[in-house]
Amino acid sequence: xxxxxxxxxxxxxxxxxxxxEDKAESYARTKxxxxxxxxxxxxxxxxxxxxxxxxxxxLWATREALGAENTLAVTSVSPSFPVDEKTAVEEFIxxxxxxxxxxxxxxxxxxxxxxxxxxSSRRCYFCKSELYQEIEKVRAEVNFGTVFDGLNxxxxxxxxxxxxxxxEMNVFSPLLKAQIDKPTAREICxxxxxxxxxxxxxxxxxxxxxxGVKITREALTxxxxxxxxLRKLGFSGFRVRYHNELARLELTPKDQSKLADPIVNDDVIxxxxxxxxxxxxxxxxxxRMGSSNMLDx
Length: 297
Prior knowledge:
The structure is a single chain. The protein is an alpha/beta fold. The chain folds into two domains: 177 residues, Rossmann fold, CATH 3.40.50; 90 residues, 2-Layer Sandwich (Alpha-Beta Plaits). The chain is 45% helix and 11% strand. The strands form two sheets. A four-stranded parallel sheet has the order 3-2-1-4, with helices on both faces. A three-stranded mixed sheet has the order 5-6-7, covered by helices on one side. Helix 1 crosses helix 8, helix 5 packs parallel to helix 6 and helix 9 runs antiparallel to helix 11. It is globular.
């Protein structure tokens, strides 16, 4: 029997880190152009601008595609809106070159809606319904064509009752239309050098309260004060979960390690208690999105 001679297999060259970065940047450029093209089909737009990364990208793109004169940013202020975010929102408006009259703060009254403060799994529907109804009033007043939100492709794999409210009010989602997910949105922000490119996700303060626990102004204020104090101590990418008198801290592994320093540990305890909590607990599982909702099951 003749022996078979096999040719040596030439290994495929490994993709270098630089090549991966080039591909990511190239893809981000393509998606940026897709986003601008989609928005340019509109004549004018009101952007529901929360100050988060997604709506910030949509606002920047709307400003670029339609011009400042055809762009209006609207930010809702309510007890669930972190106090520090108001300044951040105003700074971003200046950064992208929108004049002050192209941005409005409005007050929403979701705290007066039972479906919201009773805090069922459909809480976000009632919040977004109130928001978009108020924004629609502004849109009609200025006679602009469309309302934009910051919904992206990654959001479609999550439970989003607020999406129903957006559909009922004919809100348009440019990121979703352009098939842009969260990582790509962040990459585009880096590409166009927006200051919010590394900003952690920060949903409304009500998301820190487990479903079924009533939302109150007092609870939201406690959460806001505690999270503000932790940010001043240098923590980032965390959550203060509300359990009445107890604050359950979800921290990144890096921030958890800081608590090994007794001085830092005491500072954390003191600032959270000063915010109104009686007990401070560290969640050993660390920070994870939507963990309050896990308590429903």
